[in-house]
Amino acid sequence: MTTLTQTDIGPEYLDREEEDLLAGIAARKQELADRLLVLCHHYQQEAVYRFADMTGDSLKLARHAAATRNRAWIVFCGVHFMAEAADILTTDDQIVMLPDLRAGCPMADMATSDEVGWAWQELAAAGIDRLLPVTYVNSSALIKAFVGEHGGSVCTSSNAERVLTWGLERSDRVFFFPDEHLGRNSAHALGIADEQVAVWQRGEVLGGNTAEQLRKTKVLLWDGYCTVHMQFTAGHVAHWRQTDPEVKIIVHPECRHEVVRAADFYGSTEGIIKRVTESPAGSKWAIGTEINLVNRLALQHPNKEIHSLSPFQCLCSTMYRIKPGYLLWVLDNLAAGRIVNRITVEPRTAQLARIALDRMLAI
Ligand code: SF4
What is the pLDDT of residues 230-249, one digit of tens each? Predict the structure, then answer.
């Protein structure tokens, strides 16, 4: 598990007025400007997001950190696997910090390297070979390293179909971690038949499949999921269709297949932002992704009607742990010459994970 113990930062940061915290962050950012890089994921809350030097999805941010070599201190306002990816791609002189160590990703934590290693061995023992691993970037460094070591590649939500195709050209089947839904949606988009897609259920013998079923499988899906995107349902899509037929529905491919199938469009966070931004004034949207991104799009486009697909607040609660008090605590420590909450990936793991990332970049 990537959930680490977070130091108690104390009432000075937890009980202070938000206005005061924001003023403190602004002052520290100015003071540390020549060494500091603050990165914020699209799902970050507004009070933190406003201090970003760069915003984006996890890979874009990690690559930006690597390209900004003159900034030694990288404060990653995202979740743990994102900070790990930044550490893997940056130089040894750059230090990556995560303001609250409890900001993990439940989906990434659903595939541990032990579980994946055991499943791999079980498949080999059952004679299911010619198998290539592919992992979504939303996974731990250890899973990326496993994939790198076994000839596979990382993928993102925007290139998963391309990476799956690459894998299937090289092998009889792909083992896809950790998001069942991104894997299934990508397999469907490639026209792979339902009977050639199977799910590996943790804790079951052969993942709940027979050896015969697995031999027919082209895409074997780990049974992980995003706790945020799983909250959107086909019923929500039906509701909007009935409420206002002019509303276009766009969802993230971490949503269940029936939601993606019922929507008008699906795409990565960057893809959703692009499509909504480029739509004409007066467009109406119901968006199936994290609420901070949906609210921000609504604020940025007052000439469009933008709603969350769900009537409930679909919030990434672990990302939400990165609150202004934690960001200020990290910056105050840096100003005092102390590094806190550093995220480091052990060199051998980083080297193998880098191989899997580089394979993706070459595909
Ligand atoms: S939105 Fe989902 S996949 Fe992304 S960090 Fe949160 S739990 Fe993980």
Answer: 999 999 999 999 999 999 99
Residue 226 CA, ligand 1 centroid: distance in Å:
6
Question: Can you name the CATH fold of 108-227?
Answer: Rossmann fold (3.40.50)
Q: Is the pTM of this model over 0.85?
A: yes
How far is the centre of ligand 1, averaged over its atoms, from the C-alpha of 298 (Å)? 21
Q: 300-323 burial, b if ≥16 CB within 10 A, otherwise e?
A: ebeebebbbbbeeebbbebbbbbb
Of all atoms in ligand 1, which is nearest to the CA of residue 108? 8
Mean pLDDT in the chain?
Answer: 97
Question: DSSP secondary structure string, 33-71?
Answer: TTTEEEEEETTS-HHHHTT-SEEE-HHHHHHHHHH-TT-
> Considering only CA atoms, which residue is closest to atom 8 of ligand 1?
105
For the structural domain made of 11-103+318-346, what CATH number should be given? 3.40.50.10800
Using most ligand atoms within 8 A of CB, pick from 136, 225, 316, 321 the residue to mutate for ligand 1: 316
Q: What residue spans in the chain does CATH classification 3.40.50.10800 cover?
A: 11-103+318-346, 108-227, 229-308
User: How many C-beta atoms surround the C-beta of residue 43 within 10 A?
Assistant: 25
Is the CB of residue 226 below 6 angstroms from any atom belonging to ligand 1?
A: yes
